[in-house]
């Protein structure tokens, strides 16, 4: 069963439609990437899932049940626009936010102690937030998001504001949480982290969902049957051998050493191609060119033409 | 509901623990008690007695100038030249010289002094000699001084006002006292609404600009956050008010038993009166005039005011007025990104507040005019204007109408504010126009 299903969500602001019939399904114990250019409607969708705003129409189910206010305790949310009370003590503040998420004071203290020790920030407990550096504040913010052990963790651009070392700590923490049974929904522009972390994605552009599915599946769909070969041998013989099975996209020759990029045509398989050319050339490497999520993102969004609709809301 | 309590608790504690709150709470009563105590304390201070030698060349005043507690007159048989030459050899602080022909020579008396005698002494001598000359002139013209004095005292009378009810009963009233009570209540409400309304606005802006608001809103509803803040701040205001009352009373009582130990305030006033009255008449040897004690009189008038109704109405208007306005302040705070942008939205909130304050000063002259009626019924102005009218007596139905409309007004502004708030609080980096605010009202939650 999916931990969260959003069905046909529509959200309008006066003249502007933020979400137009968007549906997503987030499987349990997975990492789900919500992608899209600025102003596409990602934050609007995230706010609706967090019940900060409500949809104009559509339905939200949490573990098959209609999403209501009681579910907020099972959701942890790290907004993109984030911050803490500057004049309030770190510990006191974390405790307050934990209690707002429904934890008892004693339970929250215990959990916070664990996390503060884990992140080696115990000595900051009594400090005011304004005394901490931005990176330190982000750590506290992350703890506040996860301390109540939510089933669903929603992270909006989680790596912005972290230096590479801390970003790595957070990344490992996300993977660890997944292993422990949490489901993570995260929105990002960083396609590298998508490839590294996400199991499934949905791509939103101009208020509409234009692509979704598992990362592996999407990559497969967007494969262009392109291969890169390095070989020694006669280039002429190589093209002849391919015949109608494949077309040569580009090649470089360095004496005997050749590098060629070819696309398979018709029903030709990689094995057939190899069989054909193995007789005329000595192959050093053969690999399939798989599109990166970045390429797919640019291609799909680019096909949708103009990038970036205007929005009143920050992404 | 539990979460609203958590929010109220945070809003309350974070403010009450602030240094500025503690300083204000202590400083307020110290100032208040100071204002009450210092004049009394000053009046108790015995100034040094001033000894003045009188050189009376006119011969009219010999041994006659009435003395005051701290002014002592001697009439040594010396001439002015001798006296001025030897002033520094004597213990006298100054010389009062009355010329031979006091009615001519520019009508002057002269004071020579070593050290400044002070305006009080100079005035005393001037008016006393003047009064004595007045009598002298009357006596010269064969006028009976007793007739004059009698006329003076007997012609003084007080205006006593009584309200005549339709039932035929009448009630003694004291317009001055009512004005004082009404204005004091109105001013307190005005200050409270402004001071704490702005605190609500700042709090909302703090949450918005620090961006914590989205984290909190993932746990509670915007309405809960807004109401939690409004109620939390209200409690802070009540705490401060209560502490001020308690501390002021304590300080004042402590001061009365320590610094002002043996002084009974009534006695001070009485003593001053006898001195004055006695001084006026001493040399003409007249009967004393006893004035009724002013303090007891005011207390009697207090009884004519329905203090219990006023007290509870005050609490009601104090709270309901604050709740109504602070919701609007919260809405303003949510719509802007910085304090500088608040101006345009603050205007319509402050105008009815300031208007009711200005109107109150006219209404106090005529508390039963149609203007007074309407302003005390309309919710935006009623908290201050009704408070001003109350001591003069307001028909029960008017009070009930005003109160119910205020509750409705409070419900309405809260509803309105909540709709602006929930949208505004998540809107960053955009200058908001009035039109925009209007649109927010119709967004779906």
Can you describe what's shown?
The complex is a heterodimer of chains A (315) and B (445). In chain A, the strands form 3 sheets. Chain A has a 6-stranded mixed sheet, with helices on both faces. Mean pLDDT of chain A is 86; it is low at 306-315. Chain A has helices spanning 42-49, 90-100, 105-118, 134-146, 164-179, 191-197, 215-221, 235-242, 270-277, 293-303, and strands at residues 2-13, 16-27, 31-35, 57-62, 65-66, 75-78, 152-156, 183-188, 200-205, 208-214, 226-233, 246-254, 257-264, 281-288. In chain A, helix 2 (90-100) crosses helix 3 (105-118). Chain A has 2 domains: 2-220, Rossmann fold (3-Layer(aba) Sandwich), CATH 3.40.50.300; 224-288, Alpha-Beta Plaits. Chain A is an alpha/beta fold and 315 residues long. Chain B is of the alpha/beta class. Chain B has 2 domains: 2-38 and 175-261 and 300-440, no CATH class; 50-143, D-Maltodextrin-Binding Protein, domain 2 (3-Layer(aba) Sandwich). In chain B, the strands form 2 sheets. In chain B, strands 2-1-3-4 form a 4-stranded mixed sheet, covered by helices on one side. In chain B, a hairpin with a 5-residue loop joins strand 5 (161-164) and strand 6 (170-173). In chain B, helix 6 (175-209) packs parallel to helix 11 and helix 6 (175-209) runs antiparallel to helix 12 (343-363). Residues 268-292 of chain B have low confidence and may be disordered. At the A-B interface, strand 6, helix 2 and helix 4 of A face helix 1 and helix 7 of B.
């Amino acid at each position: 069963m999916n931990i969260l299903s959003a069905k046909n969500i529509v959200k309008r602001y006066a003249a502007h439609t933020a979400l137009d019939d968007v549906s997503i399904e987030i499987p349990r114990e997975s990492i789900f990437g919500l992608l899209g250019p600025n102003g596409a409607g990602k934050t609007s969708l995230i706010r609706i899932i967090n019940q900060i705003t409500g949809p104009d129409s559509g339905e939200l189910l949490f573990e098959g049940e209609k999403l209501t206010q009681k579910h907020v305790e099972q959701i942890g949310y790290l907004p993109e626009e984030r911050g803490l009370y500057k004049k309030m003590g770190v510990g006191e503040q974390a405790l307050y936010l934990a209690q707002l998420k429904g934890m008892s004071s004693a339970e929250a203290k215990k959990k916070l102690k664990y996390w503060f020790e884990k992140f080696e920030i115990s000595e900051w407990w009594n400090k005011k937030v304004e005394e901490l550096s931005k990176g330190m504040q982000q750590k506290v913010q992350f703890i506040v998001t996860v301390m109540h052990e939510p089933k669903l963790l929603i992270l909006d651009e989680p790596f912005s504001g972290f230096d590479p070392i801390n970003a790595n700590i957070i990344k490992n923490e996300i993977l660890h949480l997944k292993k422990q049974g949490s489901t993570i929904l995260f929105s990002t522009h960083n396609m590298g982290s998508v490839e590294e972390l996400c199991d499934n994605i949905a791509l939103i552009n101009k208020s509409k969902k234009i692509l979704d599915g598992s990362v592996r599946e999407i990559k497969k769909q967007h494969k262009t049957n392109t291969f890169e070969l390095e070989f020694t041998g006669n280039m002429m013989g190589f093209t002849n051998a391919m015949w109608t099975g494949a077309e040569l996209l580009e090649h470089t020759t360095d004496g005997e050493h050749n590098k060629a990029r070819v696309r398979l045509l018709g029903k030709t398989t990689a094995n057939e191609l190899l069989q054909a050319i193995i007789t005329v050339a000595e192959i050093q490497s053969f690999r399939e060119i798989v599109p990166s999520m970045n390429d797919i993102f640019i291609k799909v969004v680019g096909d949708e033409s103009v990038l970036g609709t205007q929005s009143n809301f920050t992404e | 509901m539990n979460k609203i309590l958590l929010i109220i608790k945070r809003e309350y504690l974070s403010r009450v623990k602030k240094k500025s709150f503690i300083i204000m709470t202590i400083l307020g009563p110290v100032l208040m008690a100071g204002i009450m105590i210092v004049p009394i304390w000053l009046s108790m201070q015995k100034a040094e007695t001033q000894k003045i030698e009188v050189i009376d060349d006119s011969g009219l005043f010999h041994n006659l100038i009435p003395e005051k507690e701290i002014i002592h007159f001697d009439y040594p048989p010396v001439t002015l030249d001798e006296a001025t030459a030897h002033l520094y050899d004597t213990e006298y602080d100054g010389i009062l010289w009355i010329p031979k022909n006091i009615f001519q020579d520019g009508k002057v008396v002269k004071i020579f002094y070593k050290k400044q005698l002070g305006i009080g002494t100079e005035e005393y001598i001037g008016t006393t000699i003047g009064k004595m000359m007045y009598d002298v002139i009357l006596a010269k013209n064969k006028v009976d001084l007793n007739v004059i004095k009698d006329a003076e005292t007997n012609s003084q009378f007080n205006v006593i006002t009584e309200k005549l009810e339709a039932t035929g009963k009448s009630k003694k009233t004291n317009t001055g006292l009512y004005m004082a009570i009404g204005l004091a209540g109105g001013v307190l409400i005005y200050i409270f609404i402004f001071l704490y309304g702005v605190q609500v606005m700042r709090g909302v802006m703090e949450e918005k600009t620090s961006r914590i608001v989205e984290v909190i809103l993932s746990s509670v509803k915007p309405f809960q956050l807004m109401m939690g803040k409004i109620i939390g701040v209200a409690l802070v205001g009540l705490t401060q008010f209560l502490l001020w009352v308690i501390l002021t009373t304590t300080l004042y009582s402590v001061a009365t038993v320590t610094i002002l130990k043996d002084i009974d305030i009534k006695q001070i006033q009485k003593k001053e009166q006898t001195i004055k009255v006695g001084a006026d008449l001493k040399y003409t040897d007249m009967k004393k005039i006893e004035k009724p004690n002013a303090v007891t009189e005011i207390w009697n008038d207090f009884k004519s005011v329905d203090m219990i109704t006023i007290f509870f109405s005050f609490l009601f208007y104090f709270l309901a007025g604050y709740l109504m306005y602070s919701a609007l302040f919260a809405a303003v705070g949510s719509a802007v990104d910085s304090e500088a942008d608040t101006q345009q939205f603050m205007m319509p909130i402050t105008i009815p507040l300031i208007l009711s304050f200005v109107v109150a000063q006219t209404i106090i002259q005529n508390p039963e005019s149609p203007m007074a009626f309407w302003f005390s019924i309309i919710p935006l102005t009623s908290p201050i204007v009704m408070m001003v009218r109350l001591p003069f007596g307001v028909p029960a139905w008017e009070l009930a109408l005003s109160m119910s409309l205020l509750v409705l007004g409070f419900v309405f502004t809260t509803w309105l504010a909540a709709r602006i708030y929930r949208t505004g609080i998540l809107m960053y980096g955009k200058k908001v126009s009035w039109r925009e605010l209007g649109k927010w009202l119709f967004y779906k939650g």
